[in-house]
């Protein structure tokens, strides 16, 4: 990993792109997790309502 980061130090644009990519992925994972929770809760609430 250190080799990749030292190479990115020579290329700031690549580093910025990587940072934005990681943030984007983290945001997607968070949103997916939230939707997953909401879906699970709606199913449980519907089952309780029956």
Radius of gyration: 19 Å
Number of strands: 0
Proportion of beta-strand residues: under 5%
**Oligomer kind:** single chain
Describe this entry's structure for a reader:
With 50 residues, the chain is mainly α. It has a domain at 23-50. Helix content is 94%, strand content 0%. The chain has 2 helices and no strands. The chain has helices at residues 2-10, 12-49. α1 (2-10) crosses α2 (12-49). The longest helix has 38 residues, at 12-49. The radius of gyration is 19 Å and the shape is rod-shaped. The protein starts with a helix and ends with a helix. The mean pLDDT is 83.
Features of this protein?
single chain, 50 residues, mainly alpha, 2 helices, rod-shaped
């Amino acid at each position: 990993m250190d080799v990749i980061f030292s190479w990115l130090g020579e290329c700031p644009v690549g580093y910025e792109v990587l940072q934005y990519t990681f943030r984007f992925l983290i945001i997607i994972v968070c949103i997916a997790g939230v939707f997953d929770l909401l879906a699970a809760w709606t199913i449980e609430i519907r089952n309780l309502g029956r």
